[in-house]
Design brief:
By secondary structure, the protein is mostly helical. 67% of the residues lie in helices and 0% in strands. The protein has four helices and no strands. Helix 2 packs antiparallel against helix 3. It is elongated, with a radius of gyration of 15 Å.
Length: 79
Amino acid sequence: MSKVDQVLQPKNLSYFNVATGAYAAGLSACFVANEVFHNGQPALLYLDPSLVGGTLACAAVNNQVSDLWDFSEADEDEE
């Protein structure tokens, strides 16, 4: 996400900061579900939606949804 921040230069929210917060929220949700149901839960069940949703919400706030959707890292050879 730091590469996305570097290339897209968001105006309002940093993609890296939002992704870090979304990861923490998803991991917390996983731990809460584990405590409530007393049954192991796959962490990706909570991490994927929180990260994808957080990143898309950040892009919407920054008005960069299409830029983020079309984002591609350049190969080292192309630079």
